[in-house]
Every structure is written in C-alpha cells, then in structure tokens.
Amino acid sequence: MKPIYTTAMEAVSRIEDGSTLMVGGFGLVGIPEQLILALVEKGVKDLTIISNNCGVDDWGLGLLLKERQIRKMIGSYVGENKEFERQVLSGEIEVELTPQGTLAEKIRAGGAGIPAFYTPAGVGTIVAEGKEVRLFDGKEYVLEEALMADFSLVRAAKADTFGNLIYNKTAQNFNPMMAAAGTFTIAEVEEIVEAGELDPAAIHTPSIYVQGLLQAKQEKRIERLTTR
C-alpha cells in the first residue's frame, strides 16, 4: 500500500526550495489543484517547473508565478497568463520553450530511461541552437535530451490503495508520462478504492510509478469562457 496523505500540505512536505517539479495538466484540465495550492501556502521558492503551460493568472501554476516561487519554467505554451508574459519580458523568470510534441517525448523518454533522441521538430530554428544536428536518410534531426524531475505532481480520477491510477478522459494529457518521469510522484485523486477494485485493463499508470496519494475534490474552473 502507498501512503495516503490526509492533507495537501502533508503531501508536499518533502518538496524544498530549488526542487524540479513536473506538474500534469493541459490548460486547467487535469492539474493537481490542491497540491499547487499547498505549494503556494508552504512558500517554497526557486522552483523549476516542467509543465505544458503555466496556468492562468488566478489559478493553477499561475498562483506560484504570482508569488514569485518559480525560477525557471520549461513548457510549450504561455498564451493564457499575462503575469507570465510580464515576468518573461522583464527578465524575472527563466523560460525554456519547447515544441509541444518534443516536450511530451522528452518527458516520456525520461520515464523510459532513454537519455536522448533525435527529432526533426525545431531544425533550422532557435530551438536547435547549441544542439547537435545529424542527417538521417537525407533529413536533418536535432538531438533532444530527456527530462526528469525530483517530484511529479499529477491528477487522476481514481486510484487504488496500491497506487494504480486511472485518469478521466483528456486529463490523461501529460499526467501518465510525468508520473513515470518523477523520482517521487504524488497523485492527487478524486476517489481511492481498495486494491483489486480497479479493472487491470483500465489502469493508465501502474503503482510502481506512484509514491503517495492525496484524495481531494477539484474545483474544475473554466480556463476561457466563450459566450455568444
């Protein structure tokens, strides 16, 4: 059985200043909301965050940005956060932008123990500056190194007490690969059931990748409301 934390603050107690964190989600879908709120309350700083994007101004990773707790952001999209844009332009935060597919593969490779791989994405652009470029079958490919993290914070719909996870629909996004690429993975879930209650064929993340569980409800905020 895996540790089941009683509070979000207990769940993030191991995370210290200067840690590298992978945070699941795409926009506001599948983000570990309560774990992020606990990090804000704890006040840890100088964090390196690996995530597709950095939340919005008043929710998700945007809350850590607001409190200046992020030193470096590695992601693929920054368009929904004005504070992020301001910090980038003012030089207050270090940013490493990566093509979205490359980011996903860098994380997947880290979890699979593959140190690096070649991809055509970014060849001939600033993405390839300072990186090795090789020719395969007459086409150029740039070498990208894998990503790993001290901690991975993911969000799942269900878990069993062994730590097996099932994600809800598009919440699978970056969560499964991040769960595998973190040295210590904490899963925030809506429901925890007894071992054996989950259909083995439906499990997205095997328990071997999970070190701790937190049961918590989601607010499920809307990232961008469009009305007619």
Structure description:
The chain has helices at 8-11, 33-42, 61-66, 82-90, 100-112, 175-181; strands spanning 4-5, 20-23, 47-50, 70-75, 94-97, 116-119, 133-136, 139-145, 149-160, 165-166, 182-193, 212-215. The chain has 228 residues and is α/β, with parallel strands linked by helices. Strands 1, 2, 3, 4, 5, 9, 10, 11 and 12 form a nine-stranded mixed β-sheet that branches. Strands 6-8-7 form a three-stranded antiparallel β-sheet. It is globular, with a radius of gyration of 18 Å. The model has no long low-confidence stretch (mean pLDDT 95). It contains six helices and twelve strands. Helix 4 (82-90) links the parallel strand 4 and strand 5 (94-97). It has a single domain (4-112, 148-215), classed as Glutaconate Coenzyme A-transferase (3-Layer(aba) Sandwich).
Short description:
This protein has 228 residues and is an alpha/beta fold. It contains six helices and twelve strands.
Keywords:
228 residues, alpha/beta, 9-stranded mixed β-sheet, 3-stranded antiparallel β-sheet, 29% strand, globular
Q: Can you tell me the CATH architecture?
A: 3-Layer(aba) Sandwich
Q: What gross morphology would you assign? A: globular
Taken in chain order, the helices and strands follow as EHEHEHEHEHEEEEEHEE
Q: What is the CATH topology descriptor?
A: Glutaconate Coenzyme A-transferase
Look at the structure and give the mean pLDDT: 95
Uncertain ranges: none
Topology, number of strands = 12
The CATH homologous superfamily corresponds to Glutaconate Coenzyme A-transferase
CATH class placement: Alpha Beta
- In which range does the helix fraction lie? 10-25%
